[in-house]
Amino acid sequence: MPLELGIVLPTFNERANIATMVDRIARALEGVGWEAIFVDDHSVDGTADAVRAISRTDPRIRIIERIGRRGLASAAIEGMCATSAPLVAVMDADHQHDPNLLVAMLEALRSGDYDLAYASRFAAGSSTARWNRPDRERMSGVANDLARKLTGVELSDPMSGYFMLRTEDVRSRVDRLSGIGFKILLDILATSKEPMRVKELPLDFAAREAGESKLDRVVAFEFLVGLYDKWLGRIIPTRFALFGTIGAMGVLVHMAVLFAFFQTIHVGAGKAVFTDFAIGQTIAALVAMTFNFTLNNALTYADQRLHGTGPLLRGWLKFALTCSVGLLSNVGAGALLVEIGVQPYLAGLAGILIGSVWNYALSSRFVWGKFG
Predict the structure, then answer these.
(1) Which of 43, 91, 171, 268 is the most buried (most CB within 10 A)?
(2) How do residues 194-206 score in pLDDT, each as one tens digit?
(3) Is 308 left (phi over 0), alpha (psi -120 to 50) or beta?
(4) Long-range contact list for 327-330, CB < 8 A, 24+ apart?
C-alpha cells in the first residue's frame, strides 16, 4: 500500500529492544503504509546489525548508522529528512513510548485540523506510574515550566520526545533547527513562524524494557544549551561559548597551580627565573588541560561523550596532541614575555589566550568529531 508514515527511532545500544519494538509497531499500524527508520549512533552492542537482520525480510525497516556523528536531536533530524512519507513521527525505541498512540496521531493529522500531534506525560489522563522515576519526573516538570516561560510554547509537555507532523513542515524549517540537545519537539515549535495547531494525547509513560537511559543529570544542562543555541547560537557558536566558559574555569585552575608551584619552590634569578617559570607553566597547563578535557567531555560534548577507560584515555591523548601546538605557543609566548620583564602571572594569562583558539578548533574536529 502507499507509504503514508515514516517513523524515526534514534538508537544507541538498543539491540535488545529492536525486534520487539518492530513487532509492536507492525501490530499497531496494521492497514497503514509505514516504514521505520532507525538512526543509530554506531552502537557497540550491535544495534545496527539487529536492524539489518530484520530489514532483510521486512523492507519497511531501514537503518542509518552514523559514524562520527552523535546526538539525539541531530539523529531525529536526519531520520525525518530521510523518509519520503508525507507524515513522520519520532519516538524512542526503548518501549517507553506506546506505538498504539501512532494511530491517534495519524487520525489527528489526517483530519486536517492539526499540524502536529504529540504524546504528553502530563496531560489529563496520562500516567508516569510505570516509569517509577520521581526524580526524573520532577526534573522534567521544572524543564517544562522553564520551556513554557522562555519560548511561549503552551503545552503540558513541550519536552516530549514522541510526536508526529507533516514531513514538509520539517523540511521547510530544517535549516533553522539547532540539532543540539535532546528535545527536538521544543526546537520545532520554537522555530515555527506561525503557531502550530497541536493535538495533545495522554501518554502512559512506561519504564524502558532493556538497556540504560541515554539521559542523565546532564539533561538539564543540555536543555539550557538548547535554549541558548536557539536564541544566541548564531551570534556566538554554542559549543565555542561552552568551550570558552570551561576554558575560563581552566584559567583559574591554571593560575592556582602556577601560584602553588611558585609557593613551593625558591624562584631563582636571571636564567633560573626563565627555567622555573617554564616548568611551572608546563605543569599548570597540563593540569588545566586535563580539567578542561574532563568538563568538555561531560558538558560541551555531552551528546558525543566518550565513555570507558580506553576511549577516555585515547580522547585525552588526542586532546593533548591537538592542544600541543597551543601548549607550546602558550608556554613559549609566556616565557618570552617573562624574559623581557613582564610580570609572570600576566605572562601566564597571555599564553593561555594565545593557545585557546587553536585548542577549540582542533579538539572539536579530532577528539569529539565534527558536529553534524
Answers:
(1) 91
(2) 888 999 999 987 6
(3) left
(4) 327/282, 327/285, 327/286, 327/289, 327/355, 329/354, 329/355, 329/358, 330/281, 330/285, 330/354, 330/355
